[in-house]
């Protein structure tokens, strides 16, 4: 029997990432080549016309797996019955805007969207927040969805993970597929910590293969952590195709499982693992089993890593305090 279509809601659908993402979802790359999808696009009223244009192009691709495209400016309608929610639309930081203003503006988006997901989503809903500040936006959305298991709310650090794979592969002159067990810890920000201490290259220790602490500290970590800013500087706009690609990787692995012998990186509400305060949406090494993320346990954290994980987690705590003070979460 043919599978029923999966409802995939994409917010910010008329934006750059939306344009790079929607065609890949409709072609089957998000969920698999045998899973039909119904796309539900959420946009602000001013961008509805542009979203309609994208929907026309989606029609023109005649994707066999695309069961339909609906466009909304009301989150309650867009998230009704949603199975996979990709929260891409966010308020960007503009000139002169303080961090507090940015958090407040995004709280005004992600609080109501979390509440709409809570009230209308399907039982198996999975949420990926891409819009920045992604970790804290996910925290806000999750706080407004008390009826949904907290671990269904995730924020994206897969782009950072893929960037780290690529940088390490270039350094060692190997293929990205030769590298396993790399981790991004903490916040999707410049404080994130890309960790290669448990990583393997063709089965041997990546740190031993690199054998260059100075490169690790002064080149690899800052290059990965500041890559988003470097892309903005070069392109005049933030990463879009690579962000869409990472969102596809994240959801595909969540639904279909991560390969044996490897893990990936996802920001999700902490259960207290590795000393990260409970509830903070922080990035961890994870595997996906039976459709759920599981934090990889039992890794030894050396002093070099501890210091950097703690610094990024401190930043997340500050963001949580700031949104609490604004009354955006309890
Ligand atoms: N986590 C990551 O790795 C990562 C990587 C790249 C970009 N980002 C972030 O993703 C976000 C989107 O990037 P982009 O390049 O597509 O931006 P963009 O400005 O091109 O598009 C954003 C879209 O969101 C829409 N939007 C704004 N408020 C909305 C709301 N309340 N509901 C629905 N739609 C809304 C806007 O109309 C716009 O079309 C940004 O916050 C960016 O910083 C995150
Ligand atoms: O949009 C940004 O600020 C950068 C983005 O999060 C990225 O990592 O490319």
Automatic annotation (TrEMBL):
Domain Lactate/malate dehydrogenase C-terminal as annotated: residue spans? 157-323
Root EC class: oxidoreductase
Q: What is its EC number?
A: 1.1.1.37
Q: Which reaction does it catalyse?
A: (S)-malate + NAD(+) = oxaloacetate + NADH + H(+)
What GO MF annotations does this protein's record show?
Answer: L-malate dehydrogenase (NAD+) activity
Q: Which residues form the Lactate/malate dehydrogenase N-terminal domain?
A: 7-147
Positions bound to substrate: 93, 99, 132, 163
Active site per the UniProt annotation: 188 (proton acceptor)
Highest taxon of the lineage: Bacteria
> Can you supply a Gene Ontology BP term from the record?
malate metabolic process
Annotated SUPFAM superfamilies: LDH C-terminal domain-like, NAD(P)-binding Rossmann-fold domains
InterPro entries under this entry? L-lactate/malate_DH, Lactate/malate_DH_C, Lactate/malate_DH_N, Lactate_DH/Glyco_Ohase_4_C, Malate_DH_AS, Malate_DH_type2, NAD(P)-bd_dom_sf
> Which keywords describe this protein according to UniProt?
NAD, Oxidoreductase, Tricarboxylic acid cycle
Indicate which residues the UniProt annotation says bind NAD(+).
Answer: 12-18, 106, 113, 130-132
Identify its protein family. Answer: Belongs to the LDH/MDH superfamily. MDH type 2 family.
PANTHER family the record matches:
MALATE DEHYDROGENASE
According to its UniProt entry, the function of this protein is described as: Catalyzes the reversible oxidation of malate to oxaloacetate.
Q: What name appears for this protein in its UniProt entry?
A: Malate dehydrogenase
